[in-house]
Amino acid sequence: MAKIVCVLYDDPVTGYPKTYARDDLPHLERYPDGQTLPTPRYIDFVPGTLLGSVSGELGLRKYLEGNGHQLVVTSSKDGANSVLDRELHDAEIVISQPFWPAYMTAERIARAPKLKMIVTAGIGSDHTDLQAAMERGITVAEVTYCNSNSVAEHVLMMILGLVRNYIPSYNWVMKGGWNIADCVARSYDLEGMQVGTVAAGRIGLRVLRLLKPFGVGLHYMDRHRLPESVEQELNLTHHTNLASLSKVCDVVTLNCPLHPETEHMINADTLKGFKRGAYLINTARGKLCDRDAIAAALESGQLAGYAGDVWFPQPAPADHPWRSMPHHGMTPHISGTSLSAQARYAAGTREILECYFEGRPIRNEYLIVQKGELAGVGAHSYSAGNATKGSEEAARYKKQ
Ligand code: NDP
């Protein structure tokens, strides 16, 4: 029987919810490209409840214990005395979410001799040293598409929030003010601006589609070109490199995975190629950007705003400069963990576990690494290597 260690974020400070703001979730059957939503044989949770925190347990306990397995659920993941480190020695499967990632470094993998599978309950497996996983023959899987549209909605919210200066204006209301000039001195219309996405995969393409009605010029940069019919439908301009895209765009949004090729793609040098006063939105991964270069670009005015929900490491320590830099619209990593998204990735995680334990193949679209090499979606979107360096910094986070 297997031991499964599941690392989840803490429950709300007010305790695990007893009631919810809404009674149901819309019923979806397929994602925009036709891929079906997760299809586990059964689920033991109520969609729309908080599944991603420790007490929610991704709805897995009944299923796993009912089949004789051991489930350990914890939020303690960083530092030498973490529960994760204590439990790793005989774990067969580690599950975590990118919002509160169990950084599966080569050292941790080496300390887990029985480890066979690492599951990302969500999308983005850069918190796992994929190179080390390949070398050990560990399967890495994620729930592709489960929250791509959730993130795209967050991107749209953040673009509008920055361009229209929403958060500072809201803050004036909260302070009892009516300071219209203070609010509008940095407020613009999005209409007519040029907006570009770095990567037009599931999230990037959705962002482009959501933006079309705003009357903006749409641009994308990707290694592979979108079908001509999509380029025509959205009137897209394709760029082969970041410099060409950033030179013409008022708003740039990052939607590519983090892997050694994309790490720090936005740095002091590449930022010089942006239009002065550009807005940058990053809901993909914090390490795509050089932390200090972003803060400096906001100070100097090279960037008019930066927003996103991804940091490095996670959780970000109290003195992380992105908490205090000017003109930012940061949230903690939440865009892909709405209650709607949680229902999908909890079901997807269950589907992956059912396949694993029943000896059925895991969907190709969920595979990142298998049999010692990049596989499935991973072979398309990732490159080999390790992007977890520096993750030990997460241990500096103190709960507020
Ligand atoms: P997809 O795999 O659908 O899309 C990724 C795209 O990135 C692909 O089109 C790929 O191109 C492209 N890409 C890869 N490398 C490069 C590169 N060097 N330059 C330009 N484009 C590149 O993934 P999703 O859209 O679903 O998700 C994207 C990322 O967003 C995830 O990897 C994750 O890091 C992040 N994410 C964040 C979430 C959050 O909660 N904030 C939730 C979900 C995802 P090609 O196909 O041509 O190889």
From TrEMBL:
The D-isomer specific 2-hydroxyacid dehydrogenase NAD-binding domain, residue ranges: 156-335
Protein's cellular compartments: Cytoplasm
Positions of the record's site feature: Important for catalytic activity: R285, H333
Compositionally skewed regions (Basic and acidic residues) per UniProt: 390-400
GO molecular function: formate dehydrogenase (NAD+) activity
Binding site for NAD(+): 148, 202-203, 222, 257-261, 283, 309, 333-336, 381
Domain D-isomer specific 2-hydroxyacid dehydrogenase catalytic stretches: 62-364
Swiss-Prot/TrEMBL catalytic activity: formate + NAD(+) = CO2 + NADH
Keyword terms of this UniProt record: Cytoplasm, NAD, Oxidoreductase
Entry-linked Gene3D superfamilies: NAD(P)-binding Rossmann-like Domain (3.40.50.720)
Region of interest (Disordered), residue spans: 380-400
EC number(s) recorded for this UniProt protein: 1.17.1.9
Highest taxon of the lineage: Bacteria
UniProt key word Cytoplasm: yes
Binding site for substrate: I123, N147
Subunit and partners: Homodimer.
Function: Catalyzes the NAD(+)-dependent oxidation of formate to carbon dioxide. Formate oxidation is the final step in the methanol oxidation pathway in methylotrophic microorganisms. Has a role in the detoxification of exogenous formate in non-methylotrophic organisms.
Record-stated family: Belongs to the D-isomer specific 2-hydroxyacid dehydrogenase family. FDH subfamily.
Protein name per UniProt: Formate dehydrogenase
Species this chain originates from: Cupriavidus pampae
Taxonomic lineage: Bacteria, Pseudomonadati, Pseudomonadota, Betaproteobacteria, Burkholderiales
